[in-house]
Amino acid sequence: MSDTILEVRDLHAYYGKSHVLHGVDLTVRKGEIVSLLGRNGVGRSTTVKAIMGLVQSTGTIEFNGESVVGLKPYQIAHQGLGYVPEARDVFPALTVEQNLLLGLKGRTPGRWSFDDMYRLFPRLKERQHTQAGVLSGGEQQMLTLCRTLMGDPELIMIDEPTEGLAPKIVELVGQYLQALEKRGISVLLVEQKLAIALDISQRVYVMGRGHIVFEGTPQALKDDARVRREWLEV
To answer: What pTM was estimated for this model as a whole?
Structure first.
């Protein structure tokens, strides 16, 4: 039996007449953290949006061995594929706890409970009765991550979770991602910060101009100065 949970082959994506992705191939295995790296504008966010059914695309997208092509985003989510967008997407008039409740999608908690969320990010427990709209950017990012987890996904795609966060919060996010791995949840991480991606990932992909230009281990990327210089360094 294959240990692949997500398989993407020959993925093309479009915004109107603009052809953004050009034959992207990638896989994520069960219980694995995979990072998708690259400069801004190369198609990393479009890749996860296409997988989630949020942009027009063609190609093969299989989750747990079944095609999700043509499904609505909510249908894909109910199959166990979680998505955390780059924008901190909270419900501002609702409290922290009410936001977390919405993540259940009408089901009882699975592998994750309120107590789990509060252990991961104690600040959320302190703010559990506070409206999400008055939280700091870092707190809203924590809440968005945790609300997605409350839906008990088998794989979670996270787009730029450390963008704009203070170094201490970035460290907390790294611990959060490693906590997912320990519970057997797969992660596809879109990230610009090379250090955190190389530290926590089992494999990495590098994107350039809408296609994959490198696939390998973090160590292999560290050893490949040409790829880093051409596709990652500013």
So the answer is: 0.91
